[in-house]
Amino acid sequence: MSGAHSFASGMGGIRTAGDLVARMEIARGMKINEAKEYVAKKLEVSVADLSDPVVMNELRRDLNIGSAYVLPNVAQGIDAKFRIAELLDIEINSVNKFEERIGRKLK
Amino acid sequence: MGKIRTRLGDGSIVELSESELRSDLEGGTQDAAERGKIPPLSEDELRYLAELFKRPDRSVGVDMGKEVVLSYDCGPLKIKRSYSTASKFQSLQILERLLGADTLEMAHVDYSYKPAKQLTWMDQPIMEQALLVTIPAMFYGGMPNLGLYTQPDGPCVNPMELLPQGKIAEARASFEEMVEHAVNDMVFVASTMYEAGADGINFDTTGAAGDGDFLAALRATEILRQKYPDICIEMGMAGEFIFGMHGALTYDGVRLAGLYPHKQLKLAEKAGVNIFGPAVNTNTDSSCPRDVARASTFIKACVKNSNILIHGNVGMGVCGIPMQDVLPVDSVSRVSKALVEITGLDGL
Fold first, then answer.
1. What are the structural domain ranges in chain A?
2. Which of A:60-99 have CB within 8 Å of B?
3. Is the ipTM of this complex over 0.95?
4. Would residue B245 count as lying in a domain?
5. What is the maximum alpha-carbon separation in chain B?
6. pLDDT by residue (tens digit) across A36-88?
7. Percent helix, strand, coil in chain B (nearest 5)?
8. Number of independent structural domains in chain B
9. Which of B118, B154, B260, B347 is geometrically suited to a Cys-Cys bond with B69, CB 3.0 to 4.6 A?
């Protein structure tokens, strides 16, 4: 069922920019269109590009914010989230907790 | 035109004539409008739905550019209940990397806050580690599930045993005690998971045990909002109508029993919810078009009245999705497309 919804109407998560748009809904309470416009502006792409896996996979690699197709020496987890927090200018709870754990500010 | 092949709410195939399809769509939206005292779908929207169900395509999708955020309830549980061998980490990564999930959610296998509380000492480190290896926002989810607080498994006398004895006051007092226990458990688990680094908490299937269940989620939300101003709280509902199991419970002066989604939403907003998930019952005897028209009518009213995000509940047996364990793509994809394109919601 999750797959059917994902194909029918989902943004695509880290295959595209779905996780980033979701971040703006969660962090700022932005409605879907506002969140898409915000992310598109930050990434310097069109709103339509946000759910295009070809455009976004390349861009995610350039920005090193993690992607579905994992290659060596690229961000895959918390490292990607540090960059996403900076890129979108938001606080991410797990990023802040990680900084608390190591006792050092990294961003 | 020949017969239109669609399904009943139980998932079985049914064939409708064009006039039967039209009648089902009109009946569905009128039923929702009358029950909720909300506007029915417009003529254009009914025509759109008729075209959607007339299409012979096996699956359909939203127009490119109209995609929405998909939030997932109890991700690891869905992998586990298929008896696929995967840890919680692996399940979350399957959702993240293979299924394109926009958000993730970790959960205890029982998916209720009462049993989850006993195992937070095990789940909290898993949450901490999962957050290191995943990228999308991570929720922790569970159900208020007031039913777990009755004897012999829980501390409270079962109100359903008191009511037949005519002990109305005692039954209500027991419900109220159950609410207090549930609030404590929900706040405890949510706090540990947020302090572990989770982005948010999901109170899912809220209202399943009636008005007390809804009240527990509202009160827990209120406490968490005050305690953690930045926490994201999602509240997914169990059904379209709050049952008055207690009957006299109120929140912010509003009686909870009998509330439909657009009214539930206003209380969720008041309590401090960020994402509201309306659920509209699928009638297993009705056609999928009728169920989708009903769901679209209720959810459109929510979107119109909302200051917070609306993510429609589209799991089995709600919002037009058939009540089946293994779901047909034709129905699921039509529900997905219709709800997004008619109601303008923020996610599913």
1. 2-102
2. 65-66, 68, 70, 76-78, 80-81, 84, 91-94, 96-98
3. yes
4. yes
5. 61
6. 999 999 999 999 999 999 999 999 999 999 999 888 989 989 999 999 999 99
7. 50, 15, 35
8. 1
9. B347
